[in-house]
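Need residues for this backbone.
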C-alpha cells in the first residue's frame, strides 16, 4: 500500500512539475499578454494543484496536510480571479490581442464598433 501511495504521489508531483515548466516556457514563447496570462494561469492553478496534491499524499493525515489544503483552496480562488481582473483591465485599457504573426487581431470596442488593424 505504501508503494502505491508513493507512486501516486510521485505521479502527481511530476505532473505538477510538467505543467509548471510548460507554463514557464509559455510565458517566454507566447506572442501577447493575453496568451501569457493563460500560461501563467495554468501554471498557478493546475501545476500548483497537482504539486500540492502530491505533497499531501506524502504528508499523510496530519496538520501539514490541512495547511496544504488551505493553501490549495486559496490558490484555486485567487489565481483565476486575479487573471480575470488583469485581463479585464488590459482589455478596458485598449490592449489588443495579437495573432501568431504578431499582427493585431480585430476587436470590438465598448461602443460596438469593429476596429481593424
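Answer:
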Amino acid at each position: 500500500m505504501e508503494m502505491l501511495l508513493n507512486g501516486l504521489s510521485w505521479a502527481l508531483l511530476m505532473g505538477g512539475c510538467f505543467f509548471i515548466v510548460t507554463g514557464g516556457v509559455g510565458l517566454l514563447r507566447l506572442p501577447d499578454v493575453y496568451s501569457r496570462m493563460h500560461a501563467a494561469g495554468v501554471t498557478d492553478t493546475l501545476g500548483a494543484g497537482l504539486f500540492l496534491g502530491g505533497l499531501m499524499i506524502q504528508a499523510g493525515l496530519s496538520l501539514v496536510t490541512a495547511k496544504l489544503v488551505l493553501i490549495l483552496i486559496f490558490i484555486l480562488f485567487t489565481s483565476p480571479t486575479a487573471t480575470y481582473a488583469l485581463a479585464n483591465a488590459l482589455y478596458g485599457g485598449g490592449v489588443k490581442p495579437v495573432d501568431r504573426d504578431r499582427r493585431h487581431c480585430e476587436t470590438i470596442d465598448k461602443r460596438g464598433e469593429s476596429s481593424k488593424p
